[in-house]
Design brief:
mainly alpha
Length: 332
C-alpha cells in the first residue's frame, strides 16, 4: 500500500514539474547556485533558531532570561516535548524549505531537479533495507574507533570542549529516546527518523550534491564533498567518521538509483532502527548488545561478515542500477 502511494506522489510531482514557470536562477552558474543554497540555509536556520527559542520557552514556561537554565533539566517531560517539537520545526525550516525553494527558483525541472518524481522498485527497496542492517556492525566499529581518536596536545582545550559537548548531547539523546509508551515511539519515529530523513536528503543529496556535480564535473568528488559537509554540519567530532561513511552510502544510492526516495528510505530505516532498538531494549524485549554489535568485544568475524555483506549488497545495487531505472515505467 505504501509503495503504491509513493507512485501516486511521484505522478503528482511529475505533473507539477510540467507547470510553465521560468526559474529565476536557471541561467546562473553552479558556484552561484551553491552560494545561494548556503545563504538560504543560513537564513532559514536563523528563523528556525528563533522559532526553537519561542517553542522551548512556551513548553518550559520560561518568562525571563534567568529561567533559561530550566532547558537543561532533561528530567522535565515538558522540556523534552518542547525540544522534540523544536527539532521538528527546525528540520522543516532549516532543510526542507530551503531545498524546495532552491529547486523551485533554480531549475526548470522544479521538484524533478531533486528527483522526487522518480519512484523505485520493490527489489531495490528490499536491497536498501538489507544494506542498513548489514552495515550496522561496521558503523558501530567505526564509531568506536572515532571515539578513541585524540587531538594533539596543544589542542587539548578544544578536545575537552568537544568531549563536554558530546557528553551533553549524549544526555539529551538519552532523554529523547526515553519512551514510556507506544505513542512516544511513534513521535520519535516521526521526528528523529522521518523528518530527519526527508529534510537532510532533500538538502544534502537532492540540492547540494546535484549542484556540486554540475560545478566540479566529477560525481565521485561531489559525493565525497557532500558526505564531509553532511557529517560536519552535525557538529559531532566523535561521530564524524561513521556519519561520513553513511553520507557516502547515501550519495551513491542517490547516484545509482536516480531517485531521492532511495536515500530517504535508507536514512529513515537507519534512524528508525536505532529508535526501535532503544524502545525494545527498554522494554526488555531484546538484549542491549543488539544495539552495539560491532563495537566492544564483538568477534572479528561479525565485522568481516558485515563488510562482505554490505559490499555484496552495494555491488548488487550498482550492477542493477540501469535495470532498476528501465523497469520504472513513466507515470502519467
Amino acid at each position: 500500500m505504501v509503495y503504491y502511494k509513493l507512485f501516486y506522489v511521484c505522478s503528482t510531482l511529475q505533473k507539477y514539474e510540467q507547470m510553465p514557470i521560468q526559474p529565476v536562477l536557471s541561467q546562473f552558474n553552479p558556484a552561484t547556485k551553491f552560494l545561494l543554497l548556503i545563504c538560504l540555509f543560513l537564513v532559514f536556520l536563523g528563523v528556525a533558531s528563533v522559532a526553537q527559542v519561542v517553542i522551548l520557552a512556551s513548553y518550559a514556561d520560561i518568562k525571563s532570561i534567568t529561567d533559561m537554565a530550566a532547558l537543561t533539566d532533561y528530567t522535565n517531560p515538558n522540556v523534552i516535548n518542547g525540544m522534540k517539537t523544536a527539532q521538528a520545526v527546525s528540520a522543516i525550516l532549516s532543510f526542507i524549505i530551503p531545498a524546495l525553494l532552491f529547486a523551485f527558483i533554480s531549475s526548470e525541472k522544479k521538484l524533478g531537479y531533486l528527483k522526487l518524481s522518480i519512484p523505485f522498485t520493490l527489489v531495490l527497496a528490499s536491497a536498501v533495507i538489507l544494506l542498513v542492517f548489514a552495515m550496522m556492525p561496521t558503523i558501530n566499529l567505526l564509531g568506536e574507533l572515532n571515539n578513541k581518536m585524540s587531538l594533539p596536545g596543544f589542542m587539548s582545550e578544544i578536545e575537552t570542549w568537544m568531549k563536554d559537548s558530546e557528553d551533553q548531547l549524549q544526555k539529551l539523546t538519552e532523554a529523547f529516546l526515553k519512551m514510556n509508551s507506544f505513542g512516544d515511539l511513534l513521535i520519535n519515529l516521526f521526528v528523529i527518523a522521518l523528518l530527519a530523513a526527508i529534510g537532510e536528503e532533500l538538502f544534502f543529496r537532492g540540492a547540494m550534491q546535484n549542484i556540486l556535480i554540475d560545478w566540479i564535473k566529477n560525481k565521485h568528488a561531489a559525493i565525497w564533498i557532500t558526505a564531509v559537509l553532511f557529517s560536519a554540519m552535525h557538529v559531532q567530532f566523535f561521530g564524524f567518521l561513521p556519519r561520513m561513511l553513511l553520507g557516502l552510502i547515501l550519495g551513491y544510492l542517490y547516484l545509482w538509483s536516480n531517485s531521492l526516495w532511495v536515500p530517504i528510505l535508507f536514512h529513515f530505516i537507519n534512524n528508525g532502527a536505532a529508535v526501535v532498538f532503544t524502545y525494545l531494549i527498554d522494554k526488555g524485549t531484546i538484549a542491549k548488545e543488539v544495539e552495539t554489535v560491532g563495537a566492544g568485544d564483538t568477534p572479528f568475524y561479525f565485522i568481516l561478515i558485515s563488510i562482505v555483506a554490505s559490499a555484496a549488497v552495494l555491488y548488487f545495487i550498482y550492477k542493477n542500477k540501469w535495470k532498476e531505472n528501465e523497469n520504472v515505467q513513466t507515470l502519467s
